[in-house]
Amino acid sequence: MSQDIVEATKTEVVSRWAWGATWSTRWCSRAAGRASWLGATVSPKAGSMLVARFRRGGYPALEPGSRRPRSCPHQVRPEVQAAVLELRHELSSAGHDAGAQTIAHHLVGRVDKVPSVTTIWRILSRQGLIRPEPHKRPRGSYKRFEAELPNEMWQADTTHWQLADRTDVEILNLIDDHSRLVLASVALLSVKAPDVHGIFISATENYGLPAALLCDNAAVFSGSPRRGKVVLEAELERLGIRCIHSTPYHPQTCGKVERFHQTLKRFLVRQAPAQSLALLQLQLDAFRDYYNQHRPHRALGGSSPVAAFNSRLKAKPDPSQSPTHFRVRKDKVDRFGRVTLRYLGRLHHIGLGLVYKNRPVRLLVAGAHVRVVTEEGSLLRELTLDPTRDYQPLGGRTLFRDVVRQASTMS
Predict the structure, then answer these.
(1) CATH of domain 146-310
(2) CA-CA distance, 292 to 294, in Å (whole number)?
(3) Cα–Cα distance measured from residue 139 to residue 159, given in angstroms and rounded to the nearest whole number
């Protein structure tokens, strides 16, 4: 029934009463018949209520009133609502997550009875503090995964930031897939492959070795585009740690560390712009401590990452899955008596001696172990590469060719 019909029916009932009609069931039936062309009927009880309202306030009293109850015993007290709004302001000003679940976690100790997460959300919504989110892809359409144990898988990625003078810097973040624990967050002018290796080794000393590492195909993580390996890949292979690279142009695979970038930048934008790399690192360390120790994580049921990391046994790498990379390379000794070999993304020069210049040779490579032989199979040199040096010296005047010649003379 439309609102116009309802209002016309009310007016008809009151008008007949105003003309002095006697109120009765029979009269009400006639009033209902009079209003039947409007599609409405009036019961005696409803008619009596309309007349009583008209007596109290005239025609304005016939307008629909509020249906809100006069009292609400379970309504949240004003001081609790004020505490919710104050905490929302504090967390937002600091650049931290200020959702209903986080506010409920921090309300413990501030109020006697913490309201539910839904109630906190309604308080924020009434104050206009909830920003409607745009339509997103349904969560059920994603193929979600999570490691069963801490150290079962780590995720690594880099992101960009700017200092106060607009200098572009990079931040390397390393997190645990199961607990979301931030293992490392380091600011560098430019992230290089040795930097990634050093930060990873430092994290393993503090938290143990992971069973797998997930990262993208950036040059500091993968040497496959250059048909080689970076230092991190070689170290993971040596330790028996699986190295997993995401599909190109598909950041959802490393979604946890990508989401952490967003949370970190929301904090940094609320801080004073860092004047130097050292000050930016102090900000990163402060946020890392808060994120790991105090911030309730929704994916962990409100627990902190450090609590989730320490609550279960740790996964370990499988040493049996550390294969040695074998390859054979044909080369020619240059005019300085050297051959070149790329190892861990770095070009190394191996000295053989001027006596072998312009001679074709073969390099038999097994990881860092290298043997240089002639086309006929004679051994010229055998060594283990030093990754820290570009030139691999002979280490004295005695050559393997002297040993070979002596052996042939004695025979």
Answers:
(1) 3.30.420.10
(2) 6
(3) 25
Fill in the amino acid letter for 356: Y
Residue 301 burial by Cβ neighbours in a 10 Å radius (0-12, 13-18, 19+): exposed
Question: Would you list the DSSP string of 370-396?
Answer: EEEEETT--EEEEEE--TT-SEE--SS
Q: Distance between CA 156 and CA 182 in Å, rounded? A: 10
Q: What is the pLDDT along the chain (411 residues), one digit of tens a residue?
A: 455 555 666 666 666 665 555 444 444 555 444 444 344 556 777 777 777 877 777 777 777 777 878 777 778 888 888 889 888 888 888 888 888 888 888 888 888 888 888 899 888 888 888 876 666 666 665 566 788 999 999 999 999 999 999 999 999 999 999 999 999 999 999 999 889 999 999 999 999 999 999 999 898 898 877 777 788 888 888 888 999 998 887 878 888 999 999 999 999 999 999 999 999 999 999 999 999 998 887 777 778 899 999 988 999 887 766 566 778 889 999 999 999 988 876 788 999 989 999 999 999 888 788 999 988 888 899 998 888 888 998 865 444 443 343 333 333
Question: What stretch of H or E contains 246?
Answer: none
Phi, psi values for residue 2, rounded to 5°: -75, 165
Residues 132, 134: Cα–Cα separation, whole Å: 7
Domain layout of the chain by residue ranges: 3-62, 78-126, 146-310, 324-410
